[in-house]
Design brief:
Two copies of one chain form a homodimer. In chain A, 33% of the residues lie in helices and 25% in strands. By secondary structure, chain A is an alpha+beta fold. In chain A, strand 4, helix 4 and strand 5 form a beta-alpha-beta unit.
């Protein structure tokens, strides 16, 4: 465990000493402070500064995915530092690119923030994006973006990837007899979320101090929730090893396994002992990679066997149908407060 | 003037009869209703439904730009129909792709909306995206997206384009002696905005009825503001004709001309008679295309000459330096109300 993976990053307290805000110095001056902190993309042929960027697509194709994070439903500023937000916005999009078997090449980032947001806060988001890319996808960088004012802090990332001449790995390719394997954590991010919503509240509101204390006591779980580090490079390795299907586990192992099963017209049978309990079945947001391989294939990178592809439909756990919705999303009940 | 260009589209009153909301039926069921309304992209190799889409990049490169629209700072729901919002989100991003000399190929669209937003409202946004693409960039479609809940309606679009083997047209290529030309309206969108903020208010708040009346009386101006139709295909034609520089006029002719001047190390001299007055100089949001051409080049498409590239810096109007900031942005003073 090191600082850039599970640490807090620049604390939100530092941002309090900054007096320049997005509203006071304006978009152009703010961007001038953010740009130098953004990671460079090795696929970039023309970067920010014109009407659009230009990226290389060496094999004549590119992978595209987009994901938006909204204050309230998706994160609480009492618990997530701006550094975390940049890191997590990168991680969740990189994982979608990886799940196609592609290498992430670039991100564009649109941020809408209240006018009284300090420039340091936005710089810390940029730091999170940079260090997240450095750790998870070193050749990926930010090639463009947009900065707007909004009462609700919102971060929209679109990510691009290079298939390096391979076919994309779809959800629909699992075949009876294939081995089911996963790379990355299962249930850790959900465990962290559960901790935050139980012990991270004071008087029914998210608390900065309670969150910091929880993260110190449970860095693995809380860090996995606030700044996850999915195994991005294993997506490419899985494709090279001939993965027959793959998905990024964003909504929980059971629910995302059901998506592969439905798309492929098969059932996925999981071994509870191999995945480590029910939290691993239902917990979302780990952004781990779930893939199927021919039995003869060597599982690459961090992939470990957790089950088999069998005839039927849906998901089985230790031989019995598992139909629980899974996932646990306390943000759905968000009360609209500012915490 | 036809319905799809300047008309109101499905009125927001229709949406009132819908009882299904994003919050009541959830993301998956909402997306199932939206998907069939989205335009198809001819560059799409793999569309929505997997972790990411795959697009073709025939010449091994692709153009990327992103732009976010936020309720309040960027639009008012009292005046803009959801159909307008989809159309304008497409138009503003397509114009950035066109300004590089590229042909738009695809969009990804992330929308965050209040949980009580009706599904019809979101369908109307999709209709606006579809009809906007059909009118302005027929081979462009929506290849992916994301749907989130937020107290603030927010639409983030990332657009892609194909340079068809040509170099991108940058802001930095204008040379002394070049002809300055524009394609598209100048000042119409700003004129519409001024009308809305003067006669479209009742008791200091944006009024639905006053907005509808204004649009009926001044369809050209108000339509240009709420659902602009920039000359997207002229971007490609300009590149083929050898445009030396190009920009999309989003912040006003003078301000965006200054950007070409600064990037190219030259001055741009405009003829007031050719552009039609000061509103044309300062008014933003037309998303018209401003380009420079060699004097010997034939101006393609709708491009008309409005000045020359000369030695110096900044912008001259009828021979005198023009340094006004330009633009007029009443949204900056948005009071946070819901109108």
């Amino acid at each position: 465990m090191n600082g850039s993976r599970e640490g807090l990053g620049p604390s939100s307290v530092d941002c309090m000493t900054e007096t320049s805000t997005l509203g006071s110095i304006g978009e152009t001056a703010t961007l001038a402070r953010i740009f130098p902190r953004l990671p460079a993309s090795s696929a970039q042929l023309l970067g920010p500064g014109d009407d659009a960027a230009v990226l290389a697509a060496p094999d004549g194709r590119y992978v595209v995915t987009t994901d938006m994070m909204v204050h309230g439903p998706d994160f609480r500023l009492a618990w997530s530092t701006p550094y975390d937000l940049g890191w997590k916005a990168a991680a969740s999009n990189l994982a979608d690119v990886a799940a196609m078997g592609a290498v992430p090449t670039g991100l564009v980032v649109a941020i809408a923030a209240p006018a009284d947001t300090t420039v340091s806060f936005l710089e810390a988001i940029a730091d999170g994006l940079r260090l997240g890319c450095e750790e998870m996808a070193p050749t990926c960088g930010v090639v463009g973006g947009d900065l707007s004012v909004s009462p609700t802090l919102t971060i929209a990332v679109t990510a691009f990837g290079d298939l390096e001449g391979r076919d994309p790995v779809l959800r629909s390719g699992a075949r009876v007899g294939d081995v089911l394997a996963v790379s990355g954590k299962l249930g850790a991010a959900a465990g962290g979320l559960q901790l935050l919503f139980s012990a991270g509240m004071v008087d029914g509101e998210p608390s900065v101090m309670a969150g910091v204390n929880l993260r110190t006591e449970h860095p693995e779980l809380v860090g996995s929730q606030l700044a996850p580090t999915p195994p991005i490079s294993d997506g490419r390795l899985a494709a090279i090893a001939g993965a027959t299907s793959m998905i990024d586990i964003s909504d929980g192992l059971a629910l995302d396994a059901r998506r592969i099963a439905a798309a492929s017209g098969v059932a996925l049978e999981l071994q509870l002992a191999a995945i480590g309990g029910r939290q691993a079945l239902d917990g979302g947001e780990d952004h781990s990679l779930l893939a199927t391989f021919l039995p003869s294939a060597t599982r690459p990178g961090g992939f470990r066997e957790i089950g088999r592809v069998v005839e039927g439909s849906g998901v089985l756990v230790d031989g019995r149908a598992y139909t629980a919705r899974g996932g646990w999303d306390p943000y759905e009940d968000w009360n609209g407060g500012r915490g």
